[in-house]
Amino acid sequence: MPTISTAHHRWCLLRRLGTAACLASLSAPLGACERVQTTLKGTLGTDDPAWQGDSTLLAGKPSVLYRVVRGEPGGPRAVPIATIGARGLRALTLGNRGWRAFDLAYLQRGAALIPYRANEPLAPVASTRGMWEGAPLDTVSRCTVVLPAALVPIPEGVELLTSGDPPARPAPAGLRDGTIQQALETIPTLIAPTAGVPLSMISRYRRQVFVASTGASATPTIVVTYDDPEVVSDSIRPYPTPRPRQLIVVMDKGLYGYKPSYTFSTLGNNRTPPRRRFLGFLDADGDGKRELFFGLHADAFPLVTYALRFRADAWTEVFTYERQRCQG
Fold it and tell me: How much is the pLDDT for 292?
């Protein structure tokens, strides 16, 4: 598995917090605001630029994007990775004091989160335990700044959650019967061969199809993933180009029908990029158009996230989150 480099998403917020009451209005379970104020006590007037920035950010009550992490004791967890909304999709990076205030305001028992299954938001779910609600939920060895997690009853198939209200979604776009099937039929015969997957080999791949109105055009966007279960030896080099073991094709309708608007392919060994998996459609910047979210097929990197936005008739990667829960 290739090493994922640490992405440094930081910004400078230098305005001082005037009073502890700035956080008192945060939407949170009963009693959380009082605990936030306790966390703040004794910090005003100190020379702590990191906390000044963190508290200013939290006082704005931003909506937050979470990744789902499964396979942990106690059940699935929601881990915050970014803020969403009118200011755009931004990686969320706080200090220790900031993360504890975040935990009190966003993750304590009863805090509501909205789960997304591929293309649609589901009914809200409620946190059953915050990171520091009592004894720490967990620890990370030799880590000084730990990204918090909350225990949440997350439905199967859900990979993304948000706080706040569900982002706006485009109106449903209709298609004539058979249009999507016709688009899918062009992939094995026209698109896959140009990516190195001959028609004779396409049956080896497991195909998944996701369709949703993204607002990119008047018709739905189609996301198709092809995965060959074969594990490729690390001795195989990407050049000369062998047959990829994963192919991802995104299609949108143009003037003459559906055509590729994004492709990704890889061998998936240690010499090439890791395989990706589709997480879902979500409007993360409030512009009424959905972004496409991908993660990795790698248990060691459960938070790695990529977002694509539609620009000039193509999907372009506009957000990368490659950090782990230990942030310092």
Answer: 98
